[in-house]
Task: structure prediction
Amino acid sequence: MRWVGIPFRLDPFLQGTHFWAMIWLMMMTRGKVKPGLQKTKMLEIARRLFWEKGYQAASMRDIGISYGCRPANIYNFFADKEEILFEVLREEMEQIIDPIKHMEEEEDTSPIEQLKFIIESHLRVTLSYRRSAKLLFDVALDNLSPEKRKKIIDLRDTYDRIIRKVIRRGIDAGDIPEVDVKLAGFMIASMITRTRIWFHPKKERSVSDLADFIFEFAFNGLRGEAMRN
Result:
């Protein structure tokens, strides 16, 4: 580059990724684009790539290209790819738990209605993140550090605790015969989670229809298991 016939050379620092990351952030600020929105969009793209390519195969470069920025710019928001994976899993678990967390101690409504609501709410979150399913939840956990893995497992344990309490209330109310509450909770959650592998909204039932089916299947199964015993 030459200005008015005088050779112009960038300082080595200005040639590095830090300089261009700073320029990118300045452009965002000038355009009044909030960093929080940028981070949300990056997570959406990363979630899609993790599901389509698998966590190991999807790179920071893939995320940057899909987002439309230099890969180095992503490090202004996330320390590494593991942190992105953690945020993806944490966000999904919190969206599953937040609508139902009041049910852990709530005993004023019917436990059967509570169980139906848990199934429908969980299913809607699960299918809103439906992808090609090369990455499954438990596989993703293996790619997290022990500290981050524990945080996700704690959230999952909260979900398990809530659904077990609801099933136990159903038993105590006489709506459901005595069953293995822990196993019943695992089976219901597994049915919901696996729908992301095969469900397609244009070829199958609606999400509401599917939620009703899973509820009836689970509820009748709980009653039928006890009858066989």
The chain has two domains: 2-78, 83-228. The first strand starts at residue 2 and ends at 3. Confidence is low (pLDDT under 50) at residues 1-15, 132-136.
